[in-house]
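2024-03-11 09:14:02 INFO worker-7 job=invfold-0412 stage=load source=structure_tokens
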């Protein structure tokens, strides 16, 4: 019987019979419920919780998630039920549930492991909590946090496994010197050498070192590579849209990793959708280094294909800022006359243009190569299979 109902019954009986023993029982019942209510109220006010996990992971890499709950008050918590919502695509127990007790000022850490095999943006949480008194008279659900995000990076494969040559003929290797330099981009000074012009001398540095110093500048010919990834459903027609989209992602990630490994700056633009900002994905400017590669892989990992979106307007915006001699690698589903016609003006502007297709044909490759555009086909089976 519900204790509150029992309290009402005893109140009616005590009022009717005017019995001291029933009034005594009434006081005890009311007192017990009041103490239980105050206990639960104090316990929930003193309860704190948090979740910690890496923000990203490679496919197949175990991800350890730690739930920390702490009782900051002096009132013990007799029981606390926790239920964590976990995406079904992450290999983990079907549900993460725990029931624990917390003493005064006690902290507990609960750990579980996730294993993501498929790239994507996964949201963990919210964490649901529920507590009450030891007699079960009062229970109070607690609203958890808004959740955390976990990005699973795409697979990064050696280029031959994609059917691409091990050394793609795009992306320029650093050269020790250049015929042309940009005076607006200084990178330091060097000692004067015969043949240097007077205008190149840095007089302040020369006075400081008591020897003639000449200003150094970055090459005027850009050595950057930008990957342009077509990634909307409209750009991937056919029965195997998902397979083609994922192979395009793997191709972009693998090419970016190869270029960074070779010490070359690489950037990314795409017609895909970024769910983290609920907006079209913002371009990533070319840069070198592992940290920059991780930024590219993070975007590729969470990228989504929406029905709307086209690469052409993205290319117009991004290529407007590319310097002469930059390399543009377009990764698309298929080729065709329309795509080649879009790329030819970019080539005439001095950009090196390459085309990587995931569903192209021999005719598509031949058409691009007739216009001096390097073209390659990504293998479906993952084995080296370059169509010439």
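2024-03-11 09:14:09 INFO worker-7 stage=emit residues=388
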């Amino acid at each position: 019987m519900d204790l509150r109902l029992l309290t009402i019954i005893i109140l009616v009986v005590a009022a009717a019979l005017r019995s001291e023993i029933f009034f005594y029982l009434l006081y005890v019942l009311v007192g017990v419920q009041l103490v239980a209510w105050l206990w639960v109220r104090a316990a929930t006010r003193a309860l704190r919780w948090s979740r910690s996990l890496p923000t990203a992971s490679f496919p197949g890499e175990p991800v350890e998630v730690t739930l920390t709950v702490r009782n900051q008050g002096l009132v013990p918590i007799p029981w606390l039920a926790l239920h964590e919502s976990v995406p079904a695509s992450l290999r983990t127990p079907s549900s993460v549930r725990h029931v624990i007790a917390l003493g005064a000022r006690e902290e507990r850490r609960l750990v579980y492991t996730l294993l993501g095999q498929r790239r994507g943006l996964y949201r963990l949480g919210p964490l649901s909590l529920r507590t009450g008194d030891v007699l079960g008279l009062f229970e109070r659900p607690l609203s958890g946090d808004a959740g955390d995000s976990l990005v699973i990076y795409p697979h990064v494969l050696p280029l031959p496994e994609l059917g691409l040559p091990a050394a793609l003929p795009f992306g320029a290797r650093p050269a020790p010197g250049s015929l042309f330099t940009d005076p607006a981009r200084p990178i330091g000074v060097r000692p004067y050498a015969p043949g240097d012009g007077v205008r190149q001398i840095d007089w302040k540095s020369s006075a400081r070192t008591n020897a003639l110093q000449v200003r150094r500048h970055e090459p005027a010919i850009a050595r950057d590579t930008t990957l342009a990834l077509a990634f909307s459903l409209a750009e991937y027609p056919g029965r195997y849209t998902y397979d083609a989209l994922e192979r395009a992602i793997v191709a972009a990630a693998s090419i970016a990793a190869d270029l960074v490994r070779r010490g070359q700056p690489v950037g990314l633009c795409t017609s895909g959708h970024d769910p983290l900002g609920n907006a079209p994905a913002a371009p990533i400017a070319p840069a070198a280094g592992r940290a920059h590669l991780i930024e590219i892989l993070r975007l590729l990992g969470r990228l989504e294909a929406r029905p709307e979106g086209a690469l052409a307007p993205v290319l117009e915006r991004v290529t407007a800022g590319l310097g002469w001699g930059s390399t543009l690698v377009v990764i698309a589903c298929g080729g065709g006359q329309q795509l080649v016609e879009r790329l030819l003006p970019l080539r005439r502007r001095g950009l090196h243009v390459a085309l990587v297709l995931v569903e192209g044909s021999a005719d598509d490759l031949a058409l691009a190569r007739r216009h001096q555009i390097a073209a390659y086909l990504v293998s479906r089976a993952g084995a080296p299979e370059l169509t010439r």
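2024-03-11 09:14:09 INFO worker-7 stage=report msg="The longest strand covers residues 181-191."
2024-03-11 09:14:10 INFO worker-7 job finished
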